[in-house]
Amino acid sequence: MPKILITRRERFAASHRLARADWSDARNLEVFGKCSNPNGHGHNYELWVTVKGEQDLGTSFVTDLSRLSRLINERVIQHLDHKNIDVDVPFMRGKLSSTENLAVAIWHELEAPIKALGCALHGVKVQETENNSVEYHGE
Amino acid sequence: MPKILITRRERFAASHRLARADWSDARNLEVFGKCSNPNGHGHNYELWVTVKGEQDLGTSFVTDLSRLSRLINERVIQHLDHKNIDVDVPFMRGKLSSTENLAVAIWHELEAPIKALGCALHGVKVQETENNSVEYHGE
Amino acid sequence: MPKILITRRERFAASHRLARADWSDARNLEVFGKCSNPNGHGHNYELWVTVKGEQDLGTSFVTDLSRLSRLINERVIQHLDHKNIDVDVPFMRGKLSSTENLAVAIWHELEAPIKALGCALHGVKVQETENNSVEYHGE
Amino acid sequence: MPKILITRRERFAASHRLARADWSDARNLEVFGKCSNPNGHGHNYELWVTVKGEQDLGTSFVTDLSRLSRLINERVIQHLDHKNIDVDVPFMRGKLSSTENLAVAIWHELEAPIKALGCALHGVKVQETENNSVEYHGE
Amino acid sequence: MPKILITRRERFAASHRLARADWSDARNLEVFGKCSNPNGHGHNYELWVTVKGEQDLGTSFVTDLSRLSRLINERVIQHLDHKNIDVDVPFMRGKLSSTENLAVAIWHELEAPIKALGCALHGVKVQETENNSVEYHGE
Amino acid sequence: MPKILITRRERFAASHRLARADWSDARNLEVFGKCSNPNGHGHNYELWVTVKGEQDLGTSFVTDLSRLSRLINERVIQHLDHKNIDVDVPFMRGKLSSTENLAVAIWHELEAPIKALGCALHGVKVQETENNSVEYHGE
Question: What's the predicted TM-score (pTM) here?
Fold first, then answer.
């Protein structure tokens, strides 16, 4: 059976600030620059979730995309969209809200439920701006 | 002499929250929905500034685009980029951070200095998400 | 009070075929080319609805964008999305499914209910492919 | 010799409907939702074909892109563009017109002729909407 | 009869250099900056041609888009695509290859033949980079 | 420690011509077509540089993106932007200015300095037009 990748894009608008509580404001500013401005900023994040699997004999789908979309919304988007990543998001608690940490945390939120759909999470890509993005493949 | 429009795109990443201080949290939430979530959210805003004028006989330019870009950055972008619109931005003080108010405020920041370049501000367009945008033409 | 334009993008995926019932297949093919292929084809249409008005003193909005989106979905998108424009769409009955006719018909579906929101429909833009689009301003 | 990937994008506008002939309309609707609406719908599909190979010593090309484009058009695009995938497309006969099946079928149409150009087909990506896409790498 | 706007996008890849023959290299560099670098540079230009008119009673088209595309290609694109604007393009001879001059010159190439199609040229927009564009409406 | 990919996009506008000095103009034209037009042409190139590594324990970054951007600008973009690739670019000297050669040359410019940042260059993607791109992964 062929192994196929399917990708679903979702979006969320969120605010955040890069700053370690155990560093001074001066050090945070030196290391994180404008991303550490005291009152935060925000982004329209784009998220691509890629799933790998074989086709279902009945539907020819790797997985039903509307079900996949619903799952991503329940596990990830509803916690992030129109939220402050540093304050509101359970799976980001205690972590710097860097795009790296977001991508890894989203991977861990999705890995098990996507397995339960009968396929495998292949990649999570988070784009913070049109120039910057991060991908995680579970390695 | 032909009248020509030139448009410069700039971008800023900012956080904000829609909420009136003279309304209860409940009323803010009822009217503004998720845009009123207590800890704010954010966007990658895109800004298009359109200028109208005649061509300079020497350069054939309506206006020098790098000068126009510098002006937009000094007057607008540096105040908004990686900032919290509700707290950090002088020209938004005391105003709801709606896209409508942003577009009108940016118009007023740019109108005079663009006139000083020898041309006329024609339009300000602010895009908040890929689905929503606001334009103001000074009417 | 300033007059401001706000634009909402919506999307629909639909099939259609350009062919007049009162023309022969040969003539349809000669005039409409591949757009007249007998079994139809389809597009991911993009629709931009632009509304003009003054700001509400309470919200600073020209109109609430989620209400505008709901209105466009009820009046237009639900009739077109995942449909055959030539067969399924009440407001396109008896008309060629050209992008021109779509834009004008969508204008007529939206003009009155947008007036009822307290603002004015300013423009309807329908993009059929990345290279082709049509705009109607009610002239 | 370095191994390089080159990618060519092509586009096609097509209609289709997801429905199994051996299922009732009710079951098709339950499983495929709006994609099973009786009169079909359509998309502007985007296709990215990625080829892998070494550079030609004379031209420095992995393969001539205008030749690759011609090949993709002859083998794939001319059969799909402005067509009904369920009725008109030889290589989709008897298959559900899911994006998964499209990507695999296009792979099989292109694998041999691209080998004949002296390089290897590396991936076929089909995007159905701005939110959904499928990739096949011949695994 | 309603007045409708239709827009066709075309593209061309061209090289150019901003420099006046009657100015020294030093002055050109001072005024035009990196756009005056001695060996030139280039862009993927995008061109949107907007035409205004009433619908044909037979086809419902303002004008046939494939005919409009052919006209734009014959009059404009074939002279610019994969060319050096400063050397190769008849309608740019003796002019600085600024985006302003390009937009006005393209307007003059297209105005009469579009009138001959039975509609009116409404606007020419030339985008030089994702951040810079110029529009001319014949004023 | 998880292995993460981060990607930075940069852009450059450059001119070039495909032509071998040891071939006649006629042969160059036959092989390279319009890309060999005598006075050259140009593109808005887009460059994606992908870096792979583990997260820094202090910042959670794979590498600081503004530092990565500065490095790409110093080593690559400043040599290519608003330049003629065939004449002005040290690392393209003596090579055909094909997208394949560009991608491989950019890889070699970036491999060592990115290693010095403590991570590994994973991929270089160069997009010449919206339809054509080349990727190199150092194989």
Answer: 0.98
